[in-house]
Amino acid sequence: GQLVESGGGLVQAGDSLRLSCAASRRILSFNVMGWYRQAPGKQRDMVAAITSGGSTNYADSVKGRFTISRDNAKNTVYLQMNSLKLEDTAVYYCNGNAGYVDYWGQGTQVTVSS
User: Fold this and answer.
1) End-to-end CA separation in angstroms for the chain
2) Given CA atoms 23, 25, 28, 33 in this order, what sign does their dihedral have?
3) 24, 82, 89, 102 - which has most CB atoms within 10 Å?
4) Low-confidence ranges of the chain (pLDDT < 70)
């Protein structure tokens, strides 16, 4: 696939976790790359995004706790998640927007326990 996520797992509330999204093409070829999440029975929502120019955007629920970054040489985008909460439990998906086409990874499960 174009995008492959890794780094999910089971952690306790307050812990940190870093997700990685490895792309099979230059990540700068995407207009925007982002992380989305989907909890059971809920819609898929944007968590964080980074443009090719380096601008970032975050969902209000994760501001100050999550950081999106990228390594252009490795064609990888990261999501550093700190101070994890129970409500952060979801499948996290990497997204790459290349104009009229959206690419998605297969998702990685993040489970936060009390």
Assistant:
1) 34
2) negative
3) 89
4) 1
